[in-house]
Request: fold
Amino acid sequence: MKRSRWVINLLLLILSLLLNFTFSFAEEDLGVDNISAISGVVLDAKTGMVLYAKNPNIKIPPASTVKLLTAMIVLDRLPLHKKVKISKNADDTPSVPPFLREGEVYTVEELLNLMLIKSSNQAAVALAEAVSGSEES
Reply:
């Protein structure tokens, strides 16, 4: 009886050890030549070493990358429930619908959603002004 119990326990131990191993497979060649972006850089965050670069010195517009940085700053500095009044400057900014009008009031959360989901330039300007008083600083 003791011997059979010992054998069962040993088998369970071996089985549990075997099940804990995970295997992962990566493609040997990642095919960096197939990257369709015009430009790109990958850095090691700890060392700052450039791991990959494609046309690293050409100037291209940052597009919505600036909106992501704006969102990070806003989330760090403003509560989501804070009310933000749309300025004339934000109203005058070219954007996509829905258009924000001077004097309208939105929460930070609503403006973040408009900026990140609809890519609203007006919402980005309004949030920048709410954080620092202007979009310039």
Q: What stands out?
A: The mean pLDDT is 85. Residues 24 and 79 are 42 Å apart (CA to CA). The helical segments are 2-20, 65-77, 88-92, 108-117, 121-132. The longest strand covers residues 50-54.
